[in-house]
Amino acid sequence: MISLAALAIFAGLSLNLVLSFALGAAGVAGDALPRDETKRRLPLFQLGLMFVAVLFLWLFFSFAIPPYWKGFAEYFLFFPLSALVCLGLEFFGERMLLRAAAKNKEPLRVRKVFSAFTAYDGLVPASFMVTFILAVNFADALVLALFFALGNLTAMLILNEIRRRSTLEWVPRCLRGSPLILVSMGLLALISASAAGICFRILEVF
């Protein structure tokens, strides 16, 4: 139980690809959106697909890949297969949402931030690679995949809050917008990396 908790905290914090969020802050934090919608609209659809994709890829590589492929060759398959899985899940997910929206006579609202062609800007293969290395069983993979997705959601919420606060409080002109987010998320990434390192030490003990 302690190892699962450590895995959960490690996954939520170690995916401090929050720096990549900061560098791509325009898309994630919603520069193109009206100010009142920036905080509410998050790519929950894509984060859900990210969770499913990482779990599916772990199952595929753990049980479907032949033993003689395991090792060095696997790393050449991580990114292309991640992109294919993201494309397929988005296709079927959107079809299902379209049917549900047509049935309920409601407009389809899917907030997209990442591109499936890039496997969600590399988030899926990065999450999967760590999951593949650390997960010993299905429970470990489930916890890691879930908390990688939740870690991304937390990073987006923090980005939106930083952007909102920067519009309400006085900020030097040179720091407004993306520079402030980059500095803030860089500091948070350092804190997250330290906490994730502690959790990784706990995992080594178990």
Please explain how this structure is put together.
The protein has 206 residues and is an all-alpha fold. It is 73% helix and 0% strand.
What's the helix and strand layout?
Blueprint: H1 2-14, H2 18-23, H3 25-29, H4 35-38, H5 44-63, H6 74-104, H7 123-134, H8 138-168, H9 178-205
Helix pairs in contact: 1-8, 1-9, 5-6, 5-7, 5-8, 6-7, 7-8, 8-9
Which structural traits does this protein have?
206 residues; mainly alpha
Précis, in short:
It contains nine helices and no strands.
Chain-averaged pLDDT: 76
Strand portion: under 5%
Order of helices and strands: HHHHHHHHH
Gyration radius from CA atoms, angstroms = 18 Å
Secondary-structure class: mainly alpha
Number of helical stretches of at least 4 residues: 9
Q: Helicity, in percent?
A: over 70%
